[in-house]
Structure formats: C-alpha cells, structure tokens
Amino acid sequence: MKRTFFAVDIRPDDRLIPALQDIRNHLSGEYIKWVPADIMHLTLKFLGDTPEDTIRQIINAVDTPFRKIPVMTLHLSAVGLFKNLRNPRVIWIGIKSCPPLAQAVQILGNTLISFGYPADPVEFVPHLTLGRVKEIKQMEKLVRLIEKYKNESFGTAEVREIIYYESMLHPEGPVYIPLARFPLAG
Q: What pTM was estimated for this model as a whole?
C-alpha cells in the first residue's frame, strides 16, 4: 500500500511570502504545524492507502481526461479557518472558484468511484493549507490575523499540470514523491 493523493503545486511568490511570515510571526508561540513553502500544494483528492497494483490503473484512467483540462490560473485570496474560531484546525489561504479546477475534481470523483473511493462527503473547498492547529492559547491573535487578511489578494498561480503523489510520513515532516504528472492542455 502507498498513501496517495492528487494535487497541484503552488509555490508562494512575493505577494504571499510576506503574509506567511507575518502570520507565522504573530502565532509563533502557538502549537501549529506549519507547512513548508516548498511543499505547498492544493489537494484535489486524497486517496490514502492505495493498493500498489491499482496505482497504474488509476493513472491510466485519469490521464486522457486530465489532458483535456486547460492550463488554469488560480486566484489566491483571504485567510480562513477550517472548523471555526472556537475550534480552529487548519489555517488556509482561499482559492477563488475556477471552472478547470472544478472539472479536475469532478473527473477524480467520477473516475475513482470505480476503484472503491467514494465521493467526498463534503463540498470541495479549494485552499492552500498554511498550518494545522494543535492548540491556540491566545485566540485574539488569530482573530486579528483573520480580520487583517479577510479581503486580501495574494496574486495568482498558473497551473500547468496535475500531480499524483505518494506521501511518505516521517518525524521531520512528509515527503511527497510524484507517481505521475499530467500536463494540462495549452
């Protein structure tokens, strides 16, 4: 078994890096596992444990439909949370609605059902995870940061490929190994 997921890479640029540093500095005393900038990505579908003999079949099943999706430009904006301010779990940068992105997610949902991966129980919310919250002692700092960045634009990211990754967990952090790359049209 390999732990796998589909994603698009997003590398922070000059508009996003100062905000990331500001957020991390303001929350430096909190228990948050920050995502290193060099492995930031937008997860399209997390499969988890995947039998090795089905990986090639999955790659073959999504290859042709993915190649029909046009190169996409993602607009990064706002800082938000998953769960809520009373119980924050993930701090993220939002990604505005993008039809080619929605198309990729739909292809994955429809194709992977035949491999035993059920449709996601919650609606897809495109986001770039900044950190996973373990504990926040000074909630007012987090509230101020969310307020500060709620209407902020962090620029765009051009996406030219979708990547199927293996995720290997290590004590020092995850390592992502590309199993397949799917170039987009254009």
A: 0.92
